[in-house]
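Hi R.,

As promised on Friday, here is the backbone we talked about, encoded as structure tokens. Could you run it through your design pipeline when you get a chance and send me back a sequence?
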């Protein structure tokens, strides 16, 4: 009958069968290669939301949703988040290895040198209304980088796409900080080359001219950890968007700009902002039961933001690390974590984790359930939360763009189940 390493599919309408090879990865679930499915069986497969579909082969990130495990290129996320810094993780994602001390310093210098943006780009901020959401500005500005930095746009040259990669990673924090300062009518603060990559983010958001700023090491470490935890996450919606754009041979600026748009949705990277808004609406622990009931009510569109995940059917390992960071910050006397919101969040978590509805559906707190409270304690406004997510995710998106390029993958072009009208063109 069938080969050992294959799956046989039989169309019971006509008895036609076909064997499809099973491909094994390093670890994790194998895949059935169905690329010849339509050719041999005349049908498409259907997988709404791509829940059971592997869209590519990748060596970047591995997630075990059952065990709540996350690795970047074989390194466990808790190792990277506690023993390394974000620059190490960015280097690991881009160059496939953790840097030596010399490589780390060289990489950090490369990013520093590229952290300024062309002065002509500053006019872009004037084009937006004051209340423009920073994600809209960021998506436009990243695409605009390709017009000001048009000297290295050859997507087939590794040295040129690594140049684009470093420019994107280095300039996104500056664009993000400028969009925040502009929206508040504050003087823009340029990157300070005496400060580190992550420290500069808080510096550009908070400082006033002539270096009046107060940054605490624990705040920089908290933000560094948040960026590390967000750096990549397998084939999520925004990464799939980046890879789809990459498959058309568009450059990384276009792909990352599209990824920003995809990440912005509240079901994805916009969830961290929605979590805080939701905690503010719930407002008090005595209202938690009412909102848990709304979340369980099929007729109510209300969902518990920061809960549930397509892959994690256990605790999101990133959430566990952030919960610890949050509690550490709470012990810091001069860092203001909104204790009432923490109380409400803890009550939601305690109640949901004991509730049959959430247990049966494996709904646990995800990364977004905690990140917002920490970002808020760092004085970062809600509309900048998804922007911080972008700063973290940029190295992962670009690593995925490069991987697709290196594998010379075909253009992404799925098919569909057509349910529209039959031919009804009038005679003419
Ligand atoms: C991120 O994919 C990634 O890796 C993303 C990310 C990354 O790093 O890139 O991890 C970042 O996006 C994290 C997720 C942030 N989003 C939220 O916190 C929004 C709230 N969560 C839900 O919208 C939802 O859980 C999703 C979008 C995260 C997952 O959606 P799925 O996998 O499509 O799950 P589903 O909608 O099919 O839900 C399964 C069941 C349903 O009930 P039944 O139809 O089976 O009765 O669980 C219910 C859902 O109604 N459910 C929820 C719920 N999440 C799922 N019910 C109440 N509240 C929720 N939050």
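Update: got your reply. Pasting your designed sequence below so it's all in one thread:
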């Amino acid at each position: 009958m069938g080969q050992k390493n294959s799956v046989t599919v039989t169309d019971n309408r006509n008895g036609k069968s076909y064997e499809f090879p099973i491909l094994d990865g390093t670890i994790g679930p194998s895949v059935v290669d169905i690329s010849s499915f339509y050719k041999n069986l005349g049908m498409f497969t259907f997988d709404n939301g791509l829940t059971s579909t592997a869209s590519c082969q990748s060596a970047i990130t591995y997630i075990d949703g059952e065990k709540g495990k996350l690795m970047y290129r074989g390194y466990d996320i808790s190792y990277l988040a506690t023993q390394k810094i974000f620059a190490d993780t960015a280097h690991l994602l881009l160059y496939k290895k953790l840097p030596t001390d010399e490589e780390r310093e060289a990489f950090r210098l490369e990013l520093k040198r590229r952290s300024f943006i062309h002065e002509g780009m500053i006019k872009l901020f004037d084009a937006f209304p004051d209340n423009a959401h920073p994600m809209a500005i960021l998506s436009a500005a990243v695409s605009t980088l390709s017009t000001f930095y048009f000297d290295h746009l050859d997507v087939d040259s590794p040295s040129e796409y690594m140049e684009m990669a470093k420019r994107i990673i280095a300039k996104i924090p500056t664009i993000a900080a400028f969009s925040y300062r502009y929206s508040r009518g504050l003087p823009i603060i340029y990157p300070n080359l005496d400060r580190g990559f992550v420290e500069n983010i808080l510096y550009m958001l908070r400082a006033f001219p002539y270096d009046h700023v107060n940054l605490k090491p624990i705040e920089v470490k908290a933000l560094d950890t948040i960026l590390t935890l967000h750096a990549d996450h397998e084939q999520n919606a925004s990464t799939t968007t980046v890879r789809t754009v990459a498959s058309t041979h568009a450059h990384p600026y276009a792909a990352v700009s599209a990824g920003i748009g995809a990440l912005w949705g509240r079901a994805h990277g916009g969830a961290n902002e929605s979590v805080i808004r939701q905690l503010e609406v719930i407002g008090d622990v005595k209202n938690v039961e009412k909102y848990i009931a709304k979340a369980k009510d099929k007729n109510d569109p209300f969902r518990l933001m920061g809960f549930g995940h397509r892959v994690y059917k256990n605790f999101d390992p990133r959430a566990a690390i952030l919960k610890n960071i949050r509690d550490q910050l709470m012990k810091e006397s001069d860092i203001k974590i909104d204790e009432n919101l923490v109380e409400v969040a803890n009550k939601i978590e305690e109640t949901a984790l004991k509730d049959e509805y959430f247990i049966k559906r494996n709904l646990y707190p995800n990364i977004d359930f905690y990140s917002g409270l920490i970002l808020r304690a760092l004085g970062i406004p809600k509309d900048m939360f998804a922007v911080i997510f972008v700063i973290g995710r940029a190295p992962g998106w670009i690593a995925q763009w490069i991987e697709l390029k290196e594998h010379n993958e075909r253009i992404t072009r799925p098919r569909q189940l057509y349910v529209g009208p039959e031919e009804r063109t009038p005679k003419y």
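One thing I noticed while checking it: The CA atoms of residues 40 and 353 lie 46 Å apart.

Thanks again,
M.
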